Amino acid sequence: MSRYLNIAMGQLGPVQRSDSRRQVVARLCDMMREAHALGAQLIVYPELALTTFFPRWFLADDADIDSFFEREMPGPETRPLFELAHALGVGFYLGYAELAQEQGRWMRYNTAILVDQHAKIVGRYRKVHLPGHAEHEPWRRFQHLEKRYFTPGSRFDVYQAFGGIVGMALCNDRRWAETYRVMGLQGVELVMIGYNTPVHNAPAPQHDDLSLFHNQLSMQAGAYQNGTWVVGVAKAGLEEGVDSIGGSCIIAPSGEVRACCITKDDEVVVARCDLDFCAIYKQTTFNFDRHRRPEAYDMIVRRKGVALAADGSPWHEPEEA
Ligand code: ING
Asked: In sequence order, what are the residues at sequence separation of 6 or more whose Cβ sits closer than 8 angstroms to the Cβ of residue 116?
């Protein structure tokens, strides 16, 4: 039997600082209409899709920073997207900067939501792996201040939706095997990941030529090693003078690229994805219950970073008596 899901990538080209939310939402709506016309039931948009990627700047003023965040979802500018989703019966994943009130305090998250075909928010994810740095670093061509502007999330949940088990991640999360495995251990069949990835990575410029390769490699590995579909969608192109990769792609549980975008602009590509295609991987090669050995993995949870002895040799905690 097959559980087909027609999934669209809603890749965005650049969003400049002067582009209003209304203008961006109009672009998102145009892509949703195109996806619907192509038979899509779900469209995946990028990370921080509603504004320019503001962590590239050091912003001192709180009001300036908060101008990039949403206090409500949907709000007045995003409601048209929800209304269109309801009218067309198309669900969506949307990344945005969330301002949330918790115990009387305003918290800032790099967030993604999952909205079903009745325009109901059925899931919310807050980015766990925040890359970059927290203080201004003038040596960089541009900043990457996610550690300054966002509080990290602490969980990878999965949801029963669109006929299967689906989960969410954001950008840098896709580089970490743990992201997929935590969801894989919950039976995930589709992981949606929006991203903003500059071509130039200041700490390792020698990798700039590999940015598209690393993007796809990370998602192919995550898909195959957990028997899940992975959909990665970019906000791409030259945004406020910074060039970001495209490379949006739909990866099958086999690790094969099922479909990909070929521009760095607004682009819609739809693929028919059989969620039942996950089963053969989950039941054989990656039958976790049959093959995994958690008793050998405790270092993965216990240690944050590499631990070496003073002479640089590998360091092991003393065996428990
Ligand atoms: N962007 C980048 C990403 O992980 C980055 C940051 C680029 C990290 C290149 C390492 C190498 O794709 C976000 N927004 O996480």
From this structure: 91, 122, 161, 162
